[in-house]
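Hello Y.,

Per our agreement to keep a running log of every chain we model this quarter, I'm adding this entry. I've kept the format consistent with earlier entries: sequence first, then predicted structure.
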Amino acid sequence: MLHVQDAAAPVAYPLSRQLLEAVLADRVSDRFVCELIWPRLGYEPDGSGTWSAGPAAGDLWRESFPIEPQFIAQRPPSVALTRSIAREHKQLLKQQLGFAGYTIGELYPRRTRRATAVNWLLAHLAERGEPLPEAGPLPELLAVPADPVAGHPGDLPVR
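Predicted structure for the entry above:
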């Protein structure tokens, strides 16, 4: 899932419209969604499967979440992610992907937090003046979970 240039500099998985739509469609694990964000926030893998706030992480993230924030499973990191999106980028999900939101029957914390994650990723690109390619590498896509509350096998319980 993660491309590593050298031991000290993780390179984030490339973003594309196709990938972000797969996140919204719940076709990748919650951990994969987090791994799209962690390196972009300055978190680094420590070799044991845990990500820690590195020197590139902002003070707020390093102090509030020294170890990998679970953006999908836990509310506080998701709220912090939402608050970190600049006002001018709050509508990118709708503007760039045409995402109108989930229907009432699809409104689960896991899914709304995925929408937050995708909007943050779009804002991250916008702040850097980077385009969103139509297509790019994709992980192996998963079937949509039978139980959207529980998610995919291995996903952490949502709190």
